[in-house]
Amino acid sequence: MTWAGGSFGTTGQCVLAPNASIMTLDGTNTWVLRDPDSSRSVVVDPGPPIASHLDAIDAAAGDVATVLLTHHHADHSEAAREYAERHGCGVRALDPAHRLGSEGLGEGDVVSVGGLEVHVVATPGHTADSLSFVVPQDRAVLTGDTVLGRGTTVVAHPDGELGAYLSSLQRLHALCGEQGITTVWPGHGPVIEDALGAIDFYLAHREQRLDQVRAALATLPPSDDPARAVVEVVYADVDPVLWGAAELSVRAQLAYLADER
Fold first, then answer.
1. Cα gap 86→70, rounded to integer Å
2. Order of strands across the sheet with 183-186?
3. For residues 252 and 161, is the Cβ–Cβ distance under 8 A?
4. Are 43 and 92 in contact (CB under 8 A)?
5. 14: in domain
6. Could you list the residue range(s) of the whole structural domain that residue 185 is in?
7. Which of 75, 125, 139, 246 has fewest C-beta within 10 Å?
């Protein structure tokens, strides 16, 4: 599937960063959110400090009221301060180290700009500071790296934590059902039109991986650090280029299973 960003719903425009890689898929999705009757916008995850990308965001955003971050990973946050300073606005994030200005961002906050409302939901797990943003006007949720448009995400141990991640997926599932959220606007990859179906898939995938890790541990010789050996069994069908990222998730799975015992 070719993904190049574009306009979605009445409020969303995705500006795709030119930083495609095996980890970032087609690149980082920078989201520009604006009520159609307003000249002021919210920019989510300005991405990498690539001049052509920041100029493309400008072309879509116009008058930027604030910059929001879904989480601290550099492919989402690295250009945030530079971009906000360009527009004389702040950067709001859960992690104080990534803020510009005095306003943070956390569970239950509502960011209002013009007629637009963005509701903040804490969804830790991929990272400790991961947030999702609900746009009720379009029945959409921006998930950063918590739910991707293609494939599955890494639980980035030790900052990421599998128990928290599973709880976040369950919370997003409940929110989608209760609030009629139908669409996922992810941090990488294409828009997902079936939010509940995508989250169901993610939850089932995680349970399957946990079962595979349990089975691998039962057959491998005892080890103080079995993560790489588990990767070689469970992710044998995955490109070895991705084994480093897979090992982060396996370490999160092993920590989760240790807490189960």
1. 20
2. 110-113, 116-122, 131-135, 140-144, 183-186
3. yes
4. no
5. yes
6. 6-195
7. 139
What pLDDT digit, counting tens, does each position of 89-98 carry? 999 999 999 9
Q: What CATH number is associated with residue 187?
A: 3.60.15.10
Q: 224-244: b or e for each residue (b if 16 or more CB lie within 10 Å)?
A: eebbebbbebbbeeeeeeeee
Give a yes or no: residue 213 inside a domain: no
Total count of domains within the chain: 1
Would you give the distance in Å from CA 122 to the centre of its chain?
11
Q: Select from 210, 174, 216, 214 the least CA-distant residue to 195.
A: 174
Pairing of strands 90-92, 110-113: unpaired
Overall pTM surpassing 0.85 (yes/no)? yes
* Rounded distance between C-alpha atoms, residue 131 and residue 204, angstroms: 22
Spell out the alpha helix ranges (H) of 99-147.
Answer: none
Residue 214 maps to a domain? no
The per-residue pLDDT for range 83-124, each reduced to its tens digit, is 999 999 999 999 999 999 999 999 999 999 999 999 999 999
**Distance of alpha carbon 64 from alpha carbon 58, whole angstroms:** 8
Cβ–Cβ < 8 Å for 117, 111: yes
What's the DSSP call for residue 63?
A: E
Tokens of 209: 């991986």
Helices 243-260/195-219 angle, 10° precision: 80
Task: Specify whether the CB–CB gap between 13 and 60 falls below 8 A.
Answer: yes
Q: Is residue 161 domain-resident? A: yes
Residue with tokens 């300005």: 46
